[in-house]
Specification:
The protein is of the alpha+beta class. It folds into 2 domains: 77 residues, Glutaredoxin (3-Layer(aba) Sandwich), CATH 3.40.30; 112 residues, Glutathione S-transferase Yfyf (Class Pi), Chain A, domain 2 (Up-down Bundle). The chain has 8 helices and 4 strands; from the N terminus they run E-H-E-H-E-E-H-H-H-H-H-H. The protein binds glutathione. Glutathione binds next to loops.
Length: 200
Protein backbone atom coordinates (compact mmCIF):
# COMPACT_ATOMS: atom_id res chain seq x y z
CA UNK A 1 0.00 0.00 0.00
CA UNK A 2 1.37 3.43 -0.92
CA UNK A 3 0.15 6.68 0.59
CA UNK A 4 1.01 9.83 -1.38
CA UNK A 5 1.60 12.43 1.27
CA UNK A 6 2.68 15.98 2.10
CA UNK A 7 3.05 17.28 5.68
CA UNK A 8 0.50 19.69 7.20
CA UNK A 9 -2.19 18.72 4.68
CA UNK A 10 -5.27 16.54 4.68
CA UNK A 11 -2.91 13.65 3.95
CA UNK A 12 -2.28 13.44 7.70
CA UNK A 13 -5.78 11.91 8.03
CA UNK A 14 -5.06 8.63 6.20
CA UNK A 15 -1.57 8.58 7.71
CA UNK A 16 -3.15 8.71 11.17
CA UNK A 17 -5.53 5.91 10.09
CA UNK A 18 -2.68 3.72 8.87
CA UNK A 19 -0.89 4.23 12.17
CA UNK A 20 -4.06 3.36 14.12
CA UNK A 21 -4.44 0.19 12.04
CA UNK A 22 -0.78 -0.75 12.45
CA UNK A 23 -0.56 -2.15 8.93
CA UNK A 24 2.51 -1.85 6.69
CA UNK A 25 2.58 0.95 4.12
CA UNK A 26 4.97 3.03 2.06
CA UNK A 27 4.83 6.79 2.51
CA UNK A 28 5.58 8.61 -0.72
CA UNK A 29 6.33 12.31 -0.30
CA UNK A 30 4.87 14.65 -2.89
CA UNK A 31 6.66 17.98 -3.04
CA UNK A 32 3.81 20.46 -3.47
CA UNK A 33 6.10 23.52 -3.47
CA UNK A 34 8.17 21.90 -6.21
CA UNK A 35 4.93 21.18 -8.18
CA UNK A 36 5.64 17.46 -8.16
CA UNK A 37 1.88 17.01 -7.85
CA UNK A 38 1.40 18.46 -11.35
CA UNK A 39 3.69 15.98 -13.08
CA UNK A 40 1.95 13.62 -15.52
CA UNK A 41 2.98 10.55 -13.53
CA UNK A 42 1.35 11.93 -10.38
CA UNK A 43 -1.76 13.08 -12.26
CA UNK A 44 -2.26 9.44 -13.22
CA UNK A 45 -2.60 8.69 -9.50
CA UNK A 46 -4.61 11.79 -8.53
CA UNK A 47 -6.16 13.49 -11.56
CA UNK A 48 -6.51 16.80 -9.67
CA UNK A 49 -2.90 16.77 -8.52
CA UNK A 50 -3.74 16.84 -4.82
CA UNK A 51 -2.73 14.86 -1.76
CA UNK A 52 -3.60 12.45 -0.34
CA UNK A 53 -3.97 9.50 -2.69
CA UNK A 54 -3.72 5.83 -1.89
CA UNK A 55 -2.68 2.94 -4.13
CA UNK A 56 -3.48 -0.52 -2.85
CA UNK A 57 -2.72 -3.07 -5.55
CA UNK A 58 -5.28 -2.42 -8.27
CA UNK A 59 -7.16 0.09 -6.14
CA UNK A 60 -6.48 3.80 -6.55
CA UNK A 61 -8.44 6.16 -4.38
CA UNK A 62 -8.30 9.87 -3.54
CA UNK A 63 -10.31 12.09 -1.14
CA UNK A 64 -8.92 11.82 2.37
CA UNK A 65 -12.21 10.76 3.97
CA UNK A 66 -12.87 8.08 1.34
CA UNK A 67 -9.35 6.71 1.90
CA UNK A 68 -9.92 6.52 5.66
CA UNK A 69 -13.27 4.76 5.22
CA UNK A 70 -11.72 2.32 2.73
CA UNK A 71 -8.88 1.51 5.11
CA UNK A 72 -11.26 0.84 8.01
CA UNK A 73 -13.41 -1.46 5.87
CA UNK A 74 -10.34 -3.25 4.55
CA UNK A 75 -9.38 -4.10 8.13
CA UNK A 76 -12.68 -4.81 9.93
CA UNK A 77 -10.81 -6.81 12.59
CA UNK A 78 -9.36 -3.52 13.90
CA UNK A 79 -12.85 -2.21 14.76
CA UNK A 80 -12.43 1.35 13.48
CA UNK A 81 -15.85 1.40 11.77
CA UNK A 82 -19.16 -0.07 12.95
CA UNK A 83 -20.37 -3.01 10.89
CA UNK A 84 -22.77 -2.33 8.00
CA UNK A 85 -25.53 -4.20 9.84
CA UNK A 86 -25.21 -2.04 12.96
CA UNK A 87 -27.44 0.99 13.58
CA UNK A 88 -24.30 2.90 14.57
CA UNK A 89 -23.24 2.77 10.93
CA UNK A 90 -25.79 5.51 10.21
CA UNK A 91 -24.34 7.76 12.91
CA UNK A 92 -20.88 7.02 11.56
CA UNK A 93 -21.92 8.19 8.07
CA UNK A 94 -23.53 11.24 9.62
CA UNK A 95 -20.33 12.49 11.28
CA UNK A 96 -18.18 11.69 8.28
CA UNK A 97 -20.41 13.74 5.98
CA UNK A 98 -20.90 16.45 8.61
CA UNK A 99 -17.19 17.31 8.30
CA UNK A 100 -16.82 18.34 4.65
CA UNK A 101 -20.38 19.65 4.40
CA UNK A 102 -20.79 21.63 7.64
CA UNK A 103 -17.85 21.75 10.04
CA UNK A 104 -14.90 22.25 7.72
CA UNK A 105 -16.51 25.05 5.65
CA UNK A 106 -17.36 26.88 8.89
CA UNK A 107 -13.77 26.68 10.15
CA UNK A 108 -12.44 27.60 6.71
CA UNK A 109 -14.60 30.71 6.50
CA UNK A 110 -13.41 31.87 9.92
CA UNK A 111 -9.76 31.19 9.07
CA UNK A 112 -10.19 33.11 5.82
CA UNK A 113 -11.63 36.14 7.64
CA UNK A 114 -8.88 36.12 10.25
CA UNK A 115 -6.70 38.76 8.59
CA UNK A 116 -7.67 42.29 7.61
CA UNK A 117 -11.40 41.60 7.56
CA UNK A 118 -13.74 43.67 9.70
CA UNK A 119 -14.90 42.46 13.11
CA UNK A 120 -18.41 42.03 11.69
CA UNK A 121 -17.23 39.58 9.04
CA UNK A 122 -15.18 37.70 11.58
CA UNK A 123 -18.16 37.46 13.95
CA UNK A 124 -20.41 36.23 11.17
CA UNK A 125 -17.89 33.55 10.26
CA UNK A 126 -17.54 32.57 13.93
CA UNK A 127 -21.31 32.24 14.37
CA UNK A 128 -21.41 29.63 11.59
CA UNK A 129 -18.99 27.52 13.59
CA UNK A 130 -20.91 27.90 16.86
CA UNK A 131 -23.90 25.74 15.91
CA UNK A 132 -21.71 22.89 14.68
CA UNK A 133 -19.43 23.10 17.71
CA UNK A 134 -22.34 23.20 20.20
CA UNK A 135 -23.73 20.06 18.64
CA UNK A 136 -20.41 18.22 18.95
CA UNK A 137 -20.04 19.43 22.53
CA UNK A 138 -23.44 18.01 23.49
CA UNK A 139 -22.30 14.61 22.24
CA UNK A 140 -18.80 14.70 23.68
CA UNK A 141 -19.91 15.91 27.10
CA UNK A 142 -21.47 12.50 27.75
CA UNK A 143 -19.19 10.10 25.88
CA UNK A 144 -15.48 10.00 25.01
CA UNK A 145 -15.85 9.46 21.25
CA UNK A 146 -18.40 10.36 18.61
CA UNK A 147 -19.82 6.85 18.44
CA UNK A 148 -19.74 6.23 22.18
CA UNK A 149 -16.99 4.41 24.04
CA UNK A 150 -15.09 3.29 20.97
CA UNK A 151 -12.71 5.33 18.84
CA UNK A 152 -13.52 5.25 15.10
CA UNK A 153 -12.70 6.83 11.76
CA UNK A 154 -15.25 9.53 12.60
CA UNK A 155 -12.90 10.71 15.36
CA UNK A 156 -9.94 10.84 12.97
CA UNK A 157 -11.89 13.10 10.62
CA UNK A 158 -13.72 15.31 13.13
CA UNK A 159 -10.60 15.42 15.31
CA UNK A 160 -8.50 16.62 12.37
CA UNK A 161 -10.99 19.40 11.74
CA UNK A 162 -11.09 20.42 15.40
CA UNK A 163 -7.29 20.47 15.54
CA UNK A 164 -7.46 23.14 12.83
CA UNK A 165 -10.27 24.97 14.69
CA UNK A 166 -8.07 25.03 17.79
CA UNK A 167 -5.15 26.47 15.81
CA UNK A 168 -7.27 29.40 14.58
CA UNK A 169 -8.57 30.10 18.09
CA UNK A 170 -12.08 28.69 17.78
CA UNK A 171 -11.91 26.31 20.73
CA UNK A 172 -11.26 28.87 23.49
CA UNK A 173 -13.57 28.15 26.43
CA UNK A 174 -14.87 24.96 24.85
CA UNK A 175 -13.62 22.47 27.40
CA UNK A 176 -15.40 19.35 26.01
CA UNK A 177 -13.92 19.95 22.57
CA UNK A 178 -10.49 20.91 23.90
CA UNK A 179 -10.46 17.77 26.04
CA UNK A 180 -11.56 15.66 23.09
CA UNK A 181 -8.79 17.00 20.82
CA UNK A 182 -6.21 16.46 23.56
CA UNK A 183 -7.47 12.93 24.14
CA UNK A 184 -7.20 12.14 20.43
CA UNK A 185 -3.75 13.67 20.01
CA UNK A 186 -2.46 11.74 23.02
CA UNK A 187 -3.12 8.44 21.22
CA UNK A 188 0.14 6.72 20.28
CA UNK A 189 -0.81 6.65 16.58
CA UNK A 190 -1.60 10.38 16.57
CA UNK A 191 1.65 11.18 18.39
CA UNK A 192 3.59 9.36 15.70
CA UNK A 193 1.92 11.58 13.08
CA UNK A 194 1.65 14.95 14.84
CA UNK A 195 4.27 14.78 17.57
CA UNK A 196 3.63 15.81 21.17
CA UNK A 197 -0.02 16.60 22.01
CA UNK A 198 0.48 20.30 22.73
CA UNK A 199 2.51 21.06 19.64
CA UNK A 200 -0.63 22.24 17.79
N1 LIG B 1 -11.13 17.10 -0.48
C1 LIG B 1 -9.76 16.69 -0.71
C2 LIG B 1 -8.90 17.92 -0.65
C3 LIG B 1 -7.48 17.64 -1.10
C4 LIG B 1 -6.64 18.90 -1.03
O1 LIG B 1 -7.16 20.04 -1.13
N2 LIG B 1 -5.33 18.73 -0.88
C5 LIG B 1 -4.45 19.84 -0.79
C6 LIG B 1 -3.61 19.75 0.48
S1 LIG B 1 -4.64 19.80 1.93
C7 LIG B 1 -3.50 19.81 -1.98
O2 LIG B 1 -3.09 18.76 -2.43
N3 LIG B 1 -3.15 21.00 -2.50
C8 LIG B 1 -2.21 21.12 -3.58
C9 LIG B 1 -2.86 21.62 -4.82
O3 LIG B 1 -4.09 21.63 -4.91
O4 LIG B 1 -2.10 22.01 -5.71
C10 LIG B 1 -9.35 15.65 0.35
O5 LIG B 1 -9.89 15.70 1.45
O6 LIG B 1 -8.51 14.81 0.05
Amino acid sequence: MQLYFAPNTRATRPLWMLEELGVPYDLISVDLAGKENQRPEYLRIHPLGQVPALVDGEVRVFESIAICMYLADRHPEKGLAPSVSSGLRAVYYQWLVFCPSTLEPAIGRFAQHGGEESDAQRQKARSRFVGAADLLEDVLRVQPYLLGDDFSVADVIVGSNLKWARRVGLLHGREPLEGYVQRLLARPAARRVFGEPDSG
